[in-house]
Amino acid sequence: MTTQGPAGRPRARHQPASAENDAEPGGPPGAGPRETAVPAAAGQDAGAAAAAPPDDPQQLAAEIEQTREQLGETVEQLAAKADVKARAQDKASQLTGRLKDQAGQARQQAAAAAAKISEATPEPVRRAAAQAAGTARQRRMMLAAAVGAGVLAWMVIARWRRR
Prior knowledge:
5 helices, elongated, mainly alpha
């Protein structure tokens, strides 16, 4: 693989970049790389002390370990952010849980309303409704046929009236 040189000609991989390409942006074309040296007076402030490596090897090892842990946590956070499928599954499970909670609350409210209605309904009416429900369960086919016949009769009558 080659990169483009200063005149647009391919530059081989083993050739070092010229000083023109390393010049500070906005500076003169032959100025060379940007200087990063810190003046001696500025090196004495608190920021330079924090950047200086510790002299104690154990302290240096502890700092390295802490940096590794922080880097590992950062990588895990970035990987979690990049994992769209897992994020979508988490969001879906949250929504599912929320919907289940709402459905449970609706069931409780319906049961409470049914209990109030049941308490307000006289006993003979409750018995008759229970008996009708039991009969309907036992004779489902007959009930379905009766409902079907009723719908069919209604359709025939409605059509006959249009003529």
